[in-house]
Amino acid sequence: MKRALVLGGGGFIGSHLVKRLKGEGFWVRAADLKKPRYAETAADDFHVADLRDYGSVERVFEGGFDEVYQLAADMGGAGFVFTGENDADIMHNSAQINLNVLEVSRRIPVGRIFYSSSACMYPEYNQLDPDNPNCTEGSAYPAAPDSEYGWEKLFSERLYFAYARNHGLTVRVARYHNIFGPEGSWDDGREKAPAALSRKIAMAPEGGEIEMWGDGRQTRSFLFVDECIEGTLRLMRSDFAGPVNIGSDEMVSINQFADMIMQIAGRTLTVRHIDGPTGVRGRNSDNALILERLGWAPSRPLAEGLAVTYRWIESQVKLGCSDSAPDA
Ligand code: NAD
Ligand code: GDD
To answer: Where is the NAD-dependent epimerase/dehydratase domain positioned along the sequence (predicted)?
Structure first.
């Protein structure tokens, strides 16, 4: 039986990936600081472990693996990564995990290792025009990410390729573009726009208003988690090392995005624009390279995944309301 290891397997993408690998017949070990919050893990073996600790990483790798997916990171949405308040933790924690994982990977046999980088590593100067951002893989240099989170991702991408070059590891690197779906953060300060706006729309009083950071003319694309995992597995098992974008190229403004969610929710609310961390002015996945190298690119319309996600968040909101309702 093939063996897979999912680091960050208690997190959003990691827990979905574990389910998918189990469905494919893998024996799966997951490791994370915490178990998944919203569902039982599907992993055969779950290590609650701090991957900043080298000894813990060694234990997690015991037995060797055909496929290792490195998703563990200190991360979140704009409210977590773009305020500046978490910069030292983000850089230290995520870099430490990646340094440990690579050092252990060259001592314990692993087949292939996947690293989840981010669109946040692209230079800010190519993302100033909301209608025309440039996120082609070749546009990474001269490097100028707009956040320390992006700099750490860029450093770690390079680290993975350096270990491939010098120590013979087989690595695959993807740059994820804003992944969303059920069972992701929606209320803990790390939530991204899809979950945050869905929560605000689900919770607003009838005919009320929601707050949105910035003027709403900033643009993004959002990729449903199932397609993120499909792309990840296709890359892992291909002969292309990357780095390659895994994202949607259906770009929307955040105003349009909120309108889409309101339509799904069947609610008409007023949007109040407030100051907040906004990140780059425009971002969209460029999918030419993934299509060329993997013969595949995400294609599911944004509205489909958004409807599934909104319904899940709405159910969480209702659950929260009933949890906190006083005893009658
Ligand atoms: P997530 O926060 O849900 O999952 C990351 C997991 O890493 C968490 O469960 C966390 O507990 C774990 N972790 C953090 N520090 C750890 C430590 N010291 N030891 C063990 N586990 C630790 O995030 P996600 O959305 O599932 O993202 C997965 C990966 O994809 C991350 O590397 C992230 O940077 C990258 N990524 C995600 C997106 C996105 O939109 N979700 C976009 C770009 C890149
Ligand atoms: N989170 C959030 N919450 N964002 C909001 C809100 C809100 O209430 N209102 C408006 N926004 C705006 C943000 O200001 C930002 O301009 C845009 O919606 C998208 O925000 P996020 O989804 O939080 O993050 P991002 O797209 O800027 O960056 C995310 O994606 C990267 C990959 O593409 C982050 O999660 C990064 O960590 C990730 O690497």
So the answer is: 4-247
Residue 251 is encoded by which pair of tokens?
Answer: 């770009």
What pairing do the DSSP bridges indicate for beta strands 3-7 and 27-32?
Answer: parallel
What are the tens digits of pLDDT across the range 92-132?
A: 999 999 999 999 999 998 999 999 999 999 999 999 999 99
Give dist(CA 179, CA 29) in Å, integer.
23
CATH topology assigned to domain 193-220+250-283+301-320? UDP-galactose 4-epimerase; domain 1 (3.90.25)
Ligand 1 close to Cβ of residue 33 (< 6 A): yes
Can you identify the CATH homologous superfamily of domain 3-180+223-246? NAD(P)-binding Rossmann-like Domain (3.40.50.720)
Residue among 178, 200, 284 whose CB has most ligand 2 atoms within 8 A, to mutate: 178
CB 57 within 8 A of CB 70: no
pLDDT band for position 323 (cuts 50, 70, 90): low
H-assigned helices in the chain: 12-23, 54-60, 78-81, 87-105, 148-167, 193-203, 225-236, 254-265, 288-294, 302-324
Q: ipTM of this predicted complex?
A: 0.99
**Which ligand has the nearest atom to the CA of 201?**
2
Pocket lining: 73 vs ligand 1, CB cutoff 6 Å: yes
